[in-house]
Design goal:
Largest sheet: 5 strands, parallel
Strand content: 15-25%
Number of helices: 5
Distance between the termini: 16 Å
Radius of gyration: 13 Å
Shape: globular
Strand order of the largest sheet: 2-1-3-4-5
Helix content: 25-40%
Length: 123
């Protein structure tokens, strides 16, 4: 398939990472998994990604902090960052988006919602 795009999936729960990887199977997206914000930042520093799907609630470093670090890095300014969380309160959603995310998905995410968000990415 031409024009492959790289998706970094960041979630501390392996099942969630696997589900997202299965959702993008057969699409233009090549999934790469990271189990923490620290691992995600290491991968972003050494590789090229078009989009990051970032869990908001993770131990060690929250998704919001990871997003803020991505936004502070000039080399990563074009990376599309999609947050995803189980927190569905609208006030929380606005706070998350204000942290620099391009989009937000609410768990459990569907394949359709994920593909729609990925297709809207700048990558």
């Amino acid at each position: 398939m031409e024009n492959r795009k790289r998706l970094l999936i960041v979630d501390d729960h392996p099942v969630n990472r696997t589900v997202v990887s299965l959702h993008v199977r057969g699409t233009e997206w090549d999934p790469v998994q990271a189990s923490s914000g620290f691992e995600a930042l290491d991968l972003l520093a050494t590789g090229s990604f078009d989009c990051v799907l970032l869990d908001i609630s993770m131990p060690g470093m929250s998704g919001q902090e990871v997003c803020q670090r991505i936004r502070a890095d000039e080399r990563l300014r074009d990376v599309h960052v999609i947050g995803y969380t189980a927190h569905a309160m609208s006030s929380e959603q606005q706070q998350i988006l204000a942290a620099g995310f391009d989009d937000l998905l609410i768990k459990p995410i569907t394949q359709g919602d994920l593909i729609k968000a990925l297709n809207a990415s700048r990558g």
